[in-house]
């Protein structure tokens, strides 16, 4: 009989130990302290690990265990220079007995906060708070540049950008991080970068800041129409045509570039490039007496000059069969 009691007592102690481990893993307020007539602790809610973004709904959850029915009251407190002051509260939840109670709140002012749940019975009050947490606004992004109101520019002109923005005092960093997108495939993380557009086109400059917790909106800073050499040629395609004795016919085509007035196509012969075509059309016949891999290149041009060469290959068959189109 005594042995059986000891075994039961051991199992009970083990159960209490494991239960305490589970509780402590989830507690973010009061550490499961005993109150006047039971247990009261906060298990869910924001902490100092990550500030809450202003205006977002936050859920708080408390666990209460008492020998009889009680009422639970929730409240939110803010720390002012003169001390803590209550800013938000919810009507009590009735009949709290070995159960969880929830509370949701939206805070619209940044600062240092604390959430409190309290219970009252027989004229005595117990309370529990989830330590402290912070509410912050997300950062902003703005900027200026050296061209002022000028939006039509020539390629090759240097533009100095000056990054700006606002950061909340509760942010994780003391200053903002910057992320620029110049719209031409290039970016920068400098606060005040210098950028030069090389190719004709319309470009939109955007800036986004980061405060260690949250990103700002992706803000449009400027738009530019750049006059200069056209963009590189794209969507080049070689299609084999037919074999005519010693001649293998085919066609080279490419996507029309609205910035271009002219195209040049060259072929590598030996160690040098030879001009095959110059004109405005976006297709050109390509005939060869030799089969195998032929190296070619193409570029577009306009009043300001030529863009970069784009190299590609044409796989000319041996006339023992045909081959499919070869896109580049």
Tell me what you see in this structure.
This protein has one helix at residues 2-26, and strands at 39-44, 52-53, 57-65, 70-80, 83-96, 99-106, 111-121, 124-129, 133-136, 142-145, 152-154, 158-164, 177-181, 187-188, 194-196, 201-210, 219-227, 237-244, 247-253, 262-269, 272-279, 283-285, 292-302, 305-306, 310-316, 326-327. The chain is mainly beta and 328 residues long. The strands form six sheets. Strands 2, 4, 5, 7, 8 and 9 form a six-stranded mixed sheet that branches. It has a five-stranded mixed sheet with strand order 11-17-16-13-14, with no helix packed on it. Strands 20, 21, 23, 24 and 25 form a five-stranded antiparallel sheet that branches. Residues 8-25 and 323-328 have low confidence and may be disordered.
């Amino acid at each position: 009989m005594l042995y059986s009691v000891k075994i039961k007592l051991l199992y009970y102690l083990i159960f209490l130990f494991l239960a305490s481990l589970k509780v402590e893993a989830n507690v973010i307020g009061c550490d499961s302290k005993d109150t006047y007539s039971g247990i009261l602790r906060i298990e869910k809610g924001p902490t100092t690990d990550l500030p809450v973004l202003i205006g977002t709904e936050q859920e708080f959850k408390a666990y209460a265990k008492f020998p009889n029915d009680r009422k639970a009251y929730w409240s939110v407190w803010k720390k002012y220079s003169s001390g803590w002051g209550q800013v938000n509260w919810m009507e009590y939840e009735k009949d709290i007995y070995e159960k969880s109670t929830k509370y949701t709140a939206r805070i619209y002012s940044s600062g240092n906060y604390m959430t409190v749940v309290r219970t009252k019975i027989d004229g005595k009050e117990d309370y529990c708070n989830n330590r402290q947490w912070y509410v912050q606004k997300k950062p902003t992004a703005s900027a200026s540049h050296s061209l002022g109101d000028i939006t039509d520019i020539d390629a090759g002109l240097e533009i100095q950008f000056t990054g700006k923005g606002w950061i909340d005092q509760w942010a994780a960093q003391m200053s903002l991080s910057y992320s620029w997108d110049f719209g031409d495939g290039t970016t920068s993380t400098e606060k005040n970068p210098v950028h030069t557009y090389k190719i004709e086109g319309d470009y939109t400059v955007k800036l986004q800041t980061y405060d260690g917790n949250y990103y700002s909106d992706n803000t449009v800073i400027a738009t530019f129409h750049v006059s200069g050499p056209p963009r590189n040629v794209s969507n080049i395609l070689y299609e084999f045509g037919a074999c005519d004795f010693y001649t293998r016919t085919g066609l080279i085509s490419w996507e029309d570039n609205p910035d271009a007035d002219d195209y040049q196509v060259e072929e590598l012969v030996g160690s040098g490039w030879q001009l095959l075509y110059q004109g405005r059309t976006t297709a050109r016949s390509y005939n060869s007496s030799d089969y195998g891999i032929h190296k070619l290149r193409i570029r577009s041009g306009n009043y300001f000059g030529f863009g970069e060469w784009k190299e590609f290959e044409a796989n000319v068959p041996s006339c023992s069969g045909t081959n499919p189109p070869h896109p580049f």
